[in-house]
Amino acid sequence: MATHVRAARAAGVGEALHAFITELYPIGRSITGDGVRETLRRIQRELPLQVHEVPTGTRVFDWTVPREWNIRDAWIKNLAGERVVDFRKSNLHVVSYSIPVRTRVSLKELREHLHSIPDHPGWIPYKTSYYAETWGFCVAHETLQSLGDPEYDVCIDSSLTDGSLTYGELELPGETADEVLLSTHICHPSLANDNLSGGATAVFLARWLMELRGRRLSYRFLFVPGTIGAITWLARNPEKLAAIRAGLVLTGLGAPAKLVYKRSRRGNTAIDRAAVHVLAHSGRPHEIRDFSPYGYDERQYCSPGINLPVGCLSRNGDDDYPEHHTSADDGDFVRPEVLADSYEACRAILRVLDADCVYVSLNPMCEPQLGRRGLYGSLGGAGERRTREMALLWVLNLADGEHTLLDMAERAGLPFATIESAARLLEEHGLLERRAGSEARPR
Ligand code: ZN
């Protein structure tokens, strides 16, 4: 495929990802409730997603599935009866999981329930209170400062009831049962980078994999409420963990910043090596971070008793950017070209995982005569030809049954795709044989 076709396609993907984020953005999500269900319904238009409901009160390891939270409306009215804070204008205005309230309070008491960001007086913060019974509003600091009436009427028309926790799951079986887990959280209200960017990227990756011919590995996608959703899935599916060979938590993939790959707890598993290799050869600014028990759902997948080979791909790393968890994380903050770039990085990582295998040379006694077979190519520039020849020589040398293609790429210092196409070419010429069942194992 010509480069410009690829580039045009990539740009098209970015616009489509952005459009999907824009569609999901207004929905009021939390860790439970109708916002999550509505989000999963929209995703179901794109993917044959299975939606699971886990009842309130279900024990999941040390946690309990909480009561379900829903909200219809909320406001703060001044004495003239005007809404000075209006949930209908931004769903960030209410602290997520606020208990219902309808009362008149003094300005002093109201202030104890207000959250703002003095450093960014125009931004509304995003706050949650899942496990403490309280209520609160999040407001722009300039709104807070404009409050001058002695009393205000407040209303939060929410409900906390026995219901369920909702998550989405998609299984894409491949030639082998070895599985790649892709997980993303879907519990934030109108916030684009954290984390509609991760959810949209996961949807597009799933669509690509569904159409990918000769998909070798199996893939499992999870769209879960952060923390409690990942814990719930892990607690309900102990028998599924053994097949997971690699995994990625996808988050914060749309804002302009370098790509950050955070290693799994084990540190040098298949996903760690694939991600590090792809980023090293991508020409992109990037950073590799070691695992730490802070961040997103890799905390659960990499807890000591679970210890799955799951890393995290994001831009910015954890949450070290001022727009994080504020109204400034909106549709303008995430960019189509950045989304496309993140999507392409994910695809490249998954391609390495899917294509990695062991080849064995059928002609190991000294080098085979490549010139006679026309394998010393005459096409391309001198540099390109030299790289191709080096790839052929490395593959022939390391096709001893002990090295996977990724081992060879690392040792040769060449991109995986170059090594893979050299191996394919040598296979076509009867010089190599793929060892069946030789897929890379986690180490
Ligand atoms: Zn978050």
List the main descriptive attributes of the protein structure presented here:
443 residues; 19 strands; Arc Repressor Mutant, subunit A; Glucose Oxidase, domain 1; elongated; 4-stranded antiparallel beta sheet; Aminopeptidase; binds zinc ion; alpha/beta
Account of the protein in words:
The chain has about 450 residues and is an alpha/beta fold. It folds into 3 domains: about 260 residues, Zn peptidases (Aminopeptidase, 3-Layer(aba) Sandwich); about 90 residues, Domain of unknown function DUF2172 (Glucose Oxidase, domain 1, 3-Layer(bba) Sandwich); about 80 residues, Winged helix-like DNA-binding domain superfamily/Winged helix DNA-binding domain (Arc Repressor Mutant, subunit A). It contains 12 helices and 19 strands. The protein has an 8-stranded mixed β-sheet, sandwiched between helices. It has a 4-stranded antiparallel β-sheet with strand order 5-4-9-6. The chain has a 3-stranded antiparallel β-sheet with strand order 18-17-19. The structure holds zinc ion (ZN). Zinc ion (ZN) binds next to loops.
